Amino acid sequence: MTGLQPIPTASLLDGQVALIVGATSGIGRAVALGFVRAGASVVAFGRDPDKLAALQNEATTDAPLLTVCGSATEVTDVQRAVECARDSFGKLDTLVCTVGVFDYYRTILDLDERLLPEAFSEIFTTNVLSYLLAVRCAIPLLLRQPSAIVLTLSTAAFYPEGGGILYGAAKFATRGLVTHLAYQLAPRVRVNGVAPGGTVGTSLRGLQTFGEGQTQVDERPERAERIRRSVPLLVTPETSDHVWAYVYLASHMCSRVVTGTVIHTDGGRGVAGTVKIAHLAEEEMR
């Protein structure tokens, strides 16, 4: 009997060099560790030097992981991360973006018009511009060989829940980046997205504009149960639950014919119905 042989986990990303933008916590951190365990050489980029050091220590027994500290919205910092990949590993063929801030479910009725311009600028700069900046800085290296870009979306990029109007609008914009970049960068670069649902174990923070820059969504004690009850699979996703979607989309071996698509790692949120979700979101805001 003939057929495909199982692919060892450690070989899925063999020979690939990945830059993970937003690797210090949450999904980005889990993806960085998952990539090195799948055989990739990784440059982990983030703002917190202590968290980067802890990440590097945890990854020492696997493939190489280097760290670069900086802001994802500063072109010189992002360029340093790209140059680290080039100088250390000779190439860059995988880019993953996971940076984001949150608006805590604010509707248009909750927004003070005097703060709206500043809040809009903050969330779009972090959640959209940082992705464009990373792609633009990485393009010269990505175009040298077949490569992959994976952008982090959200259920809020598809449904009127999962965040407020600013977060949802920013994630819809990031969804548009997947489509446009996949078209513009083909055939050399594959561009895809992962749309996680609500997840525990993240460090997703609020907006500085609203005085919530140090507040994290996981600080709400009822959040895990709310997430579990809102999806058909009745699961509460953890950061590690999303990793294999990123590995699959990054792997030239597994997904060389896949571009312009989004994998939903949301427990079936899309078939749950928006009425139920809206009700649960309303409960959380009380």
Automatic annotation (TrEMBL):
It holds the Pfam family adh_short. Coiled coil: none annotated. Gene3D superfamilies: NAD(P)-binding Rossmann-like Domain. One of its GO terms (molecular function) is oxidoreductase activity. It comes from the Bacteria. The keyword Chloroplast does not apply. The keyword RNA-binding does not apply. InterPro entries: NAD(P)-bd_dom_sf, Sc_DH/Rdtase_CS, SDR_fam. PANTHER family: 5-KETO-D-GLUCONATE 5-REDUCTASE, ALCOHOL DEHYDROGENASE, PUTATIVE (AFU_ORTHOLOGUE AFUA_3G03445)-RELATED. This is SDR family NAD(P)-dependent oxidoreductase.
